[in-house]
């Protein structure tokens, strides 16, 4: 008897040429997808809480959604449970958690006082996040990038954009009173973050820093993480505000580092081309002339 739901295939429709059809799905393929679904639920719940004027809980739920969305892919790789279905789910969850949810929470908190301008800013941010994620997915298939370029994102990544766009909310929790003039300023700030998302600005990608840590840095790294977590739990809004501001300050340094590496790479290519030309000229000059 057929069930009302089609059989779940984590990698698309079954094809005999690609292997046998799975009759039982390993649990390791399902768990990452469950985490992704929970992340979407947290993001949508944050929107609901925002429209109920429970803004602190709303922001916390958006942050929880971002955290869950950030670990589902890593858990999938650790459990060897990556699949095409999971990749598509993760992309859709990113749009909700990093684009729609922060935009609506910010609109309910302060942007609504700017009326149409506030809504336009929220729309631009959400659409920019969608474009950023689509471009990221396409660039994963680009095989022409140099190896060092994989150390950088093109534009501010969507998770960082969500953290940055909520900065006015963090400051509001610290005493900044939402008002109509402030709403217009926040709308302009939101548009700036949207432009950073879709820009060509190179942003350092910490994911590619490597899996190895120098032995002298292990203890300081552990202490830093513990200290940051302690401040985040004790002084949540201060810590998030400082983190967002520090990230904005970090962007010009990331651009400068990219320019240095690009100049070094260009110089290395020019040197290699000159060496190749010299070798070709040397080989041509060393070839004896043909006898008539």
Automatic annotation (TrEMBL):
Residues 268-292 are annotated as: Disordered. It is a multi-pass membrane protein. GO terms for molecular function: CDP-diacylglycerol-serine O-phosphatidyltransferase activity. Residues 283-292 have a biased composition (Polar residues). Its main location: membrane. PROSITE patterns: CDP_ALCOHOL_P_TRANSF. It is an enzyme of class 2 (transferase). Residues 268-280 have a biased composition (Basic and acidic residues). It comes from the Bacteria. The chain crosses the membrane at residues 27-49, 55-71, 92-110, 116-134, 154-176, 182-201, 213-231. Belongs to the CDP-alcohol phosphatidyltransferase class-I family. This is CDP-diacylglycerol--serine O-phosphatidyltransferase. It comes from Daeguia caeni.
